[in-house]
Amino acid sequence: MTSNSVEPVLRATGISKFFPGAIALDEVDINLHPGEVHALLGENGAGKSTLIKCLTGVYRRDGGSIFLAGEEINPRDTLHSQSLGIGTVYQEVNLLANLTVAENLFLGRQPTRFGLIDHKRMRRETDEILLGYGLEIDSSQLLSTYSVAVQQVVAIARAVELSGKVLILDEPTASLDRDEVNLLFAVIRELKARGLAIVFITHFLDQVFEISDRATIMRNGRVIETCRIADVTQTDVITMMLGRQLEAVTRERVHGTAGDVLVEFKGYGKRTVIEPFDLEIREGEVVGLAGLLGSGRTETSNLAFGAMAADQGEVRLRGEQVRIGNPREAIALKFALCPEDRKTDGIVGDLSVRENIILALQARSGWLRTLKRAQVQQLAEHYVRALDIRLASLDMPIRLLSGGNQQKVLLARWLATEPDFLILDEPTRGIDVGAHAEIISLIEELRKRGMALLVASSEMEELVAYSTRVVVLRERKQIGELHGAEITADNIVRAIAAEEEAA
Amino acid sequence: MIRSTNLPLFITLMTFVLAYALCASQYPAMLSGRVAANLLTDNAFLGITAVGMTFVILSGGIDLSVGSVIAFTGVFLAVVLRDTGIHPVTAFALVLLITIAFGAAMGSIIHYLEMPPFIVTLAGMFLARGAAYVLSTDSVPITHEFYDVLQGLYWKMPGGGRFRLIGAVMLLTFIVAMIVAHRTRFGKNVYALGGGAGTAQLMGVPMARTTIGIYAVSGGLAGLAGIVFSLYTSAGYSLATVGVELDAIAAVVIGGTLLTGGSGTIAGTFFGILIMGLIQTYIVFDGTLSSWWTKIVIGALLFAFIVLQKGLGWATTARTIPATRFAERS
Fold first, then answer.
1. What would the pLDDT profile of B64-84 be if each residue is shown by its tens digit?
2. How far is the C-alpha of A326 from the C-alpha of B190, rounded, in Å?
3. CATH number for domain A10-242, candidates 3.40.50.1220, 3.30.70.100, 3.30.43.10, 3.40.50.300
């Protein structure tokens, strides 16, 4: 089906895209054949989304050409690319929940009679189209009455109706459970049989191997490899995605003995978000959370901090059962969380560095008991010095700082509350190498002082550097744990990839 | 079973029926054709305004300028008919053109300058009111034989009431608006916009045309309401209809339209208007209550409906139909 004798329906060559100070795409080539499912793989920042955005006209590409069915095209925006034949369906369903299923499918091209919308015909045609996808629903109901999976299928149906040559699915399975994924895959196979070229973007490698014919693996804006799925193993793919030479880098590790168990999660989980897990963290211990994107790292951290409420399981703090329903309760228990996306979840851009540092502390002591000015100043100065935050003045807005320094301010904010249990989600995301090393040594420092830390990271080497234990996650499930000398980048990758060890 | 989409409309309808039954049990005279006719006639201008407001709110916007536009229209007509020899029909056409253009201009600013509708129409409110003052600060009577002809048009109701022309204009407006909202692409685009502007744009809804169209419709209907109001009062006064925009918003919300946009019906607004009119009528019948009780009851109703909408929102999100009805495919 994917033989190269077939003329590709979409051929893109030498696609380049530059952002100020960065090359997002570097001469990327990709060919899509009719009747194939083509997986596009890569970690965050590999350039997958940028490539899709260039193909669908969301971004103007800075170089290269796109041929659709042999003709060169220059999509101006998503609507234009849609009319040319390239449809896109995103993880968040881009349909209108307040309209009916039929209206969503036909918005903008409703069948009319005497200038008025012919509702009856519209519903009939909708039912016919959806039946082609194996979906039998009342199309005069609001879209919001149906589950995400059904909405996803309706979105796909709309994209196919409008475009019909290439269908791009951007993480369509991210919020679906297993049964729903099966249903979606049935639809994808159906479309494949109809001769559509389907691009499938996901972080779930199992799903890639289940449904895809070929895969293009990207890293740092380049195509690393385009291969037939049948010819490679998951380990090959992960190696290409992460780009590590998997030589065993065993480091001599001088981790002191861990203290008493501080926090203990038992059967803790939330339906459709993360499967129940057991996890205990001791004082003076750094537990690393490893796994590919979407494996449940962030979900685990958020759950542990109460940013998401668990719906099952229990938590014990020093042996006593506690409740963590929301971040306030967690803060009261001396928990702290540095979130993954500091721009949206962490810093308050226009407030000064000083205000950002005392935010959490102030929140804990309550708004009525304001901290004394001198005390605030002293705290801020202390952490700026301790963490070596480089800034012109404590009064400058935090958004003017570099990424690494912002991250340190965030850390300072939580350190100021003197937490017992510190959760860090991607503490080194988007910061430069120097700051990177400093954050790592800081984590080490905090551990020595007896703090319990839970650190989620996508960087294997980094996890190896500071973790006393590494918990490996895959498809929202804990699948393994590595101790002491076992902790190497090589072993982590192997654990992520290994299916047999999942049990 | 009543669908969740129609539930707010149903509740509004039941509220109206219940309220009417309650009133009628106390004052049987309220069941008469006269009361029904007056209900339509007295609320004609407000009803027409509320139709325009329904479109605006359905799209997720707000139009604060309508009260001022009604006053402007009245003063404009009065001054033009007093000072020039223009026939009222020509004046009507002229004033409708002006108000439609005014609404379209506000819509353009909202769309192209990406300004919040609240601020833009607030500016429009001051502008229109100011323009009315410039034309005349006094109440200008309208004495034209054509006005007498129009005011003399009525249908006898069973039971002795007179169903006047302006009531018919309101009913016609509601019927046309229902067709536009539910049976045309423009109408569906209005709902799409209210459901989420970003998504609507991705789905190919012509944003500029729809946004400008919505405010043009609202402006034009405010103009029409102004004409109806001038027929009702036979005068134009720049201080008239202050706060009517808020009455219109209240009617729309009581009619079951979501203030955040995307959900609601024109028919609901109709019953919203009737409910508000009914309260007023009841107070007139009672005779001892202060007319401010109207405001109090409307306020209480508004609160009730807002809470209700919130409740319905929870109820519908809690209950989604899972994907179990997929046919098996190989």
1. 999 999 999 999 999 999 999
2. 38
3. 3.40.50.300
Evaluate whether A482 touches A489 at the Cβ level (below 8 Å). Answer: no
Written as one string, the DSSP assignment of B31-73 is GSHHHHHHHHHHTHHHHHHHHHHHHHHHTT-----HHHHHHHH
The distance of B285 to chain A (nearest Cα, Å) reads 41
Distance from CA of B186 to the nearest CA of A (A): 9
Neighbours of A325 (CB within 10 A): 10
Helical H segments across A170-246, by residue range: 178-193, 205-211, 234-242
Q: With contacts defined as CB-CB under 8 Å, which chain A residues touch B192?
A: 96, 99, 107
User: In 3-state terms, what secondary structure has residue B34?
Assistant: helix
A28 bridge partner residues: A15
Residue count (chain A): 503
Tokens, residue A81? 């690319």
| Composition of chain B by helix, strand, coil, percent to 5 | 75, 5, 25
Banded model confidence at residue A252, pLDDT cuts 50, 70, 90? very low
Helix (H, G, I), strand (E, B) or coil at A66: strand
Q: If pLDDT is split at 50, 70 and 90, which confidence band does B274 have? A: very high
Query: Which chain A residues have a beta carbon less than 8 Å from that of B184?
Result: 115-117
In chain A, ranges of CATH 3.40.50.300 domains = 10-242, 261-502
SS (H, E, C) B110-164: HHHCCCCHHHHHHHHHHHHHHHHHHHCCCCEECCCHHHHHHHCCEEECCCCCEEE
Residue A249 has pLDDT above 60, yes or no: no
Residue among B183, B260, B309 with most chain A CBs within 10 A, to mutate: B183
pLDDT confidence of residue A336: 86
* Cα gap A129→A319, rounded to integer Å: 57
Residue A121 neighbours by CB under 8 Å, 6+ apart:
A111, A113
Say yes or no: ipTM exceeds 0.85. no
CB contact under 8 A, A134 and B326: yes
pTM over 0.80: no
Could you confirm whether domain A261-502 is CATH 3.40.50.300? yes
More confident residue, A64 or A503: A64
Q: Which residue's structure tokens are 């979407």?
A: A294
pLDDT grade for A500, boundaries at 50, 70 and 90: very low
Name the percent of chain A in helix, strand, coil, to the closest 5. Answer: 35, 25, 35
If we measure between CA atoms, which residue out of A416, A469, A462, A429 comes closest to residue A443?
A462
Q: Which residue has the tokens 């404009």?
A: B76
CATH code of domain B7-312: 1.10.3470
Say how far apart CA B256 and CA A61 lie, in whole Å.
Answer: 47
Express each pLDDT in B154-177 by its tens digit.
888 777 778 889 999 999 999 999
Q: Please provide residue B163's backbone torsions phi and psi, each rounded to the nearest 5 degrees.
A: -90, 105
**3-class DSSP assignment, residue A198:** strand
* Alpha carbons B181 and A247: distance in angstroms, whole number: 66
Q: How does pLDDT run across A399-427, given as a tens digit for each residue?
A: 777 666 777 788 888 888 888 888 888 87
Residue of A129, A88, A89 lying closest to A111 (CA atoms) = A129
Residues in chain A within 8 Å Cβ distance of B317: 144
Q: Which of A291-305, A391-405, B99-113 has the lowest mean pLDDT?
A: A391-405
Q: Which of A358, A389, A393 is nearest to A373 (CA)?
A: A358
